[in-house]
Write a structure and sequence with these properties.
The complex is a heterodimer of chains A (143) and B (124). Helices cover 33% and strands 27% of the residues of chain A. Chain A is an alpha+beta fold. Chain B is an alpha/beta fold and 124 residues long. Helices cover 44% and strands 28% of the residues of chain B. In chain B, helix 1 runs parallel beside helix 2. Classes of the chains: A alpha+beta (143), B alpha/beta (124).
């Protein structure tokens, strides 16, 4: 379910998954922030804090990179370019930094969104891989 | 909001300054609790200055940052000061990334922050 404390679960899951490979603590901490921002955005903006919304988080290790996808079927973003500006925020306290952090902390970042259909955030963090490549994990948080 | 967590804060008034020590993870789950508690303390204490000790905070994202900035705006509007104490490296990284460290000073101890905040005050 898109409940607030599931955000911490999402961070822990991705960090634990990513920690299988040779990542620094800095890598893990920055990935946690990016995941937290994406999942929080889905809950707060995608679903307007409706606890029944579904957020799908997928993490994949492939070709020296950690790929993370956060998807929701919420209300979507009408103007993505405006939404990713750091000064843009519909909540006076949030500062609109969520997307800015995702862009800064990850090596690649894209947002796809359609009004009334949902939003998909795709992020990549390049890492050194050990022998166990091509591993995938997925968590669906939903009610 | 479902799943919200009550954030535990330690607060004390020292020399007219509201000292707050947070612990844990400052994300959307605790943001409302964080915001409300600090607002309530600011109202009760009638203190214009805040020292926020983040020594035991292991994580922060834009939700937690937003609460800090919102309280800074209120403090600043009242002519007060805010200082941050002992952020962990990963927390400092996010504070720096946001630009908030250009407007809020960081200190290694509460005592150093108190001296700096008091030192900036004009004694009539």
């Amino acid at each position: 379910m898109s409940v607030a404390d599931n955000v911490a679960l999402a961070r822990v899951m991705v960090a634990a998954f990513a920690a299988q490979e040779e990542m620094t603590l800095t890598d893990l901490e920055e990935i946690k922030v990016a995941v937290s921002e994406a999942v929080s955005n889905s809950i707060i903006h995608g679903y307007d804090n409706d606890p029944n919304g579904v957020v799908i988080l997928t993490a994949k290790l492939v070709d020296h990179a950690l790929e993370i996808v956060v998807e929701d079927r919420g209300k979507g973003i009408a103007d993505i370019e405006q939404a990713i500006q750091p000064s843009f925020s519909t909540d006076p306290d949030r500062m609109g930094l969520g997307f800015a952090f995702m862009q800064s902390l990850m090596d690649d970042f894209t947002v796809e969104s359609h009004v009334g259909e949902g939003t998909r955030v795709f992020m990549v963090r390049k890492v050194k891989l050990g022998a166990s490549a091509l591993v995938e994990a997925s968590v669906t948080m939903g009610g | 909001m479902k799943g919200e967590i009550e954030l535990y804060l330690e607060t004390v008034i020292t020399q007219g300054i509201l000292r707050i020590k947070a612990a844990g993870e400052l994300d959307m789950a605790v943001a409302n609790s964080f915001r409300q508690q600090v607002e309530d303390m600011m109202n009760q204490a009638m203190a214009n200055d805040i020292i926020l000790n983040l020594q035991d905070v292991a994580f922060i994202d834009s939700s937690g940052l937003g609460v800090i900035l919102g309280r800074y705006k209120r403090v600043s509007a009242m002519g007060g000061k805010m200082a941050i104490v002992a952020p962990q490296p990963q927390v400092r990284r996010i504070l720096e990334l946001s630009g908030i460290m250009k407007i809020i000073e960081e200190y290694s101890t509460d005592e150093a922050a108190i001296q700096a905040v008091k030192g900036g005050r004009t004694i009539a």
